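Throughout our pipeline, every protein is held as a single compact record rather than as scattered files. The record that follows is passed on verbatim for readers who wish to inspect the format.
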Amino acid sequence: MMGKSKTSKYYAENPKAAEKKREYQIIMEYDKIPFKNNDIDFFGGKKKKIRNMRQEGQYVELSPGEQSTHLMFHKGKEVFPSVFPKDKNTKSHDPKDWLDLPNREEAYAEAKKRGEVVKFATKRRAEKMGMGAWKQGEAKKEAMRNYRQFKKEQRNKSNGSK
C-alpha cells in the first residue's frame, strides 16, 4: 500500500496553503473556459474589457484616414463608447452599418443597454481611459500626449483667463 506523497501531506495539514493552491488552479484554468463574458471577466482588467468590446478588425471609417472602434466618452467615474456596430458581428467599415451617437446621454443609454459601461474608482482614471489609456503601443502614446496637452490647456484656461 502506497502512502501519501509529501506534497499531499503538506496540503492536508495546511488548509490555507490548500486554499491558495485551489485559487491558483482556478486562475490558471480560466483561459480554458470556452466562453468569456466581459461582465464577469475580472481577471483581464478594465483596459482589456474595453479592448474586447470590439472584435479584431472591427472599426468604422469616420472620414478618409480616420478610423475608430470606440470613440470613448467619460461621465463622472464611468467610461463608454459612442460608436456601436448595428450588428455585433459586422466586419463592415461603412458608417451606415454603425450607430454614431455624438450626444453623450444617448451614447450612455446605448452603452448601458449593451453592457459596455466601465466604472472606475476615480474621475481622473475614467477621464484618462476615455481619452485613450486603454489603447496599446503608439496609439496609447499619442492618446496620452493628447491627454496631457488637454489638461495643460485646461489649467492655462482656468489660471490665465480670469
Remarks:
- The CA atoms of residues 42 and 92 lie 30 Å apart.
- The radius of gyration is 22 Å.
- The chain has one domain: 45-160.
